[in-house]
Structures are given as C-alpha cells and as structure tokens.
From TrEMBL:
GO terms for molecular function: methyltransferase activity. This is Methyltransferase family protein. Keywords: Methyltransferase, S-adenosyl-L-methionine, Transferase. GO terms for biological process: methylation. Residues 40-132 form the Methyltransferase domain. SUPFAM superfamilies: S-adenosyl-L-methionine-dependent methyltransferases. The keyword Transferase applies. The keyword S-adenosyl-L-methionine applies. PANTHER family: METHYLTRANSFERASE (PTHR43464), UBIQUINONE BIOSYNTHESIS O-METHYLTRANSFERASE, MITOCHONDRIAL (PTHR43464:SF19).
Length: 240
C-alpha cells in the first residue's frame, strides 16, 4: 500500500510543487547515457518526472508505480511517445529484457522487510536482459538524516489553482534500521489538513552489497550521489 503522499489525489496533485526541479535526476540521466541504455524501467516512477525525461531522449520506458493518483498525474504530463505506464510494484514487472532498471528518490528504502527487498531484487533481475543494469540510491545510515528531519522548518508553497499549502515534517519513531516520519499538509484556502505516514529502512553499504550478490548481481560501481556528497550512495549492479 503506497503512502498517502503518493496515493491521495490531493497530495499527488501537489507533489511536484514541493519536490521542485529534481536536480537529483541529472545523475541518473548521465548513468543511462554512460551505460548506453535504450530500454529503461523506472520503478516507483511517481508523477513521472524521470520517465518523461528519459522518453524525451528517444528511449523506450516502462514506468511502474503502485499509486494510481501519482500515475494519473504522470499520464497527464506532456510527454513524447515511448512510455508504458503500469500500476503495480516491482514484483509485477513484465519480463521486457530491459537494458536498465532504476529506482530514484531513495525508493529502495521503502522495502522495509527482508522478504519485500528479496522479492524486488528477484523481479528486477527477471525484467533485465543479460548484461542489463540496476541502478538505485540509498541514504547512508551513519549520516543520521532523521536528525536533520526532526529539526526541519515547515515548507510553504503558493500553488496555482490551490493556494497556499504548508508542509511540515515530524520524525515519529527511530528503531534502526527503521525510521518513521509524518508529513502534514495544511491547505490555507479551506483549512484542510492531510497527513502521510511513512517508514524507511536504512541499510549499510555492506548489507546492500551482500543482498545484491546473493540475488545474482555483479556490483559494477558504488559512487556518491553527486548532488548530495557524503549523504547517499548510488549502486550500479549488473545482471550477468
């Protein structure tokens, strides 16, 4: 079940306004170029920002997300042909023989149980061609991002057609490797308050590497997220 921040129609509608320009996607676009990937699976595509960017370069994209509200926003975006939008999670991926599968925006951390993560890794491997790659990022646990979240100030956006919306973030539980938090959205126009609770799993680099190897991947590289040095790692794994 996707979190309300993605699944509630009102929150999906304003998601891009709070996420901004998504400069983090530039590194993923560069990796797609580096690997010469022509067919790409975007897992947890959300409102479709990266899928649209990939398709604009002539690539064939399969974009999958469990949240119908987010997919509705994605499908409404002006995009070139070449995107297949699918509602589901990683375990529902078709065996398309893709060159590349990506999970941007720390999607890898939403798989909180060992079984969920194992099923995801297996399904992605089945969807890739031999020699295809799986690229994703995850936050460094040692950076303790949740401590910064706990001290964060509310963010306010004036959204056309909706008005002023304030988003606050509260950390609700830290039981490592799991961290839970709550986004609260207050719509000034009518006083509506919507809440979205989320839980993420923080995996150490060695744990991620061991999981990838156990599911048949060869680790090609582990690098810093260039726009967030010291905070996150980008894993590039290859299906033999």
């Amino acid at each position: 079940m996707p979190d309300p921040i993605f699944a509630h129609p009102h929150l999906a509608q304003i998601y891009d306004e709070f996420e901004g320009a998504r400069t983090d996607l530039t590194a993923y676009a560069a990796v797609a170029d580096e690997l010469n990937a022509q067919t790409v699976i975007d897992i947890g595509c959300g409102t479709g920002s990266f899928a649209v960017r990939l398709a604009s370069t002539g690539r064939a994209v399969t974009a999958v997300d469990p949240a119908s509200a987010s997919l509705e926003i994605a499908r409404a975006k002006k995009a070139p042909p070449g995107i297949c939008w699918l509602q589901g999670d990683a375990t529902t991926l078709p065996e398309v023989g893709a060159d590349l599968a990506v999970m941007t925006g720390n999607v890898a951390q939403v798989f909180v149980t060992d079984d969920e993560w194992a099923d995801t890794l297996n399904s992605i491997a089945r969807s890739l061609s031999g020699g295809g790659h799986f690229v994703f990022e995850t936050r460094r646990p040692g950076r303790r991002a949740w401590e910064e979240w706990a001290d964060s100030e509310p963010v306010v956006r004036d959204i056309p057609g909706i008005g002023r919306v304030e988003r606050s973030l509260d950390v609700t539980a830290v039981e490592l490797p799991l961290v839970s938090f709550r986004h609260t959205y207050t719509f000034a126009a009518d006083g509506t308050v919507l809440v979205s609770d989320s839980t993420l799993r923080f995996r150490e680099q060695a744990e991620v590497e061991a999981d990838l190897a156990a599911h048949g991947y060869r680790i090609r590289d582990v690098r810093e997220a260039p726009d967030r040095p010291g905070r996150e790692l980008v894993f590039i794994a290859e299906k033999p």
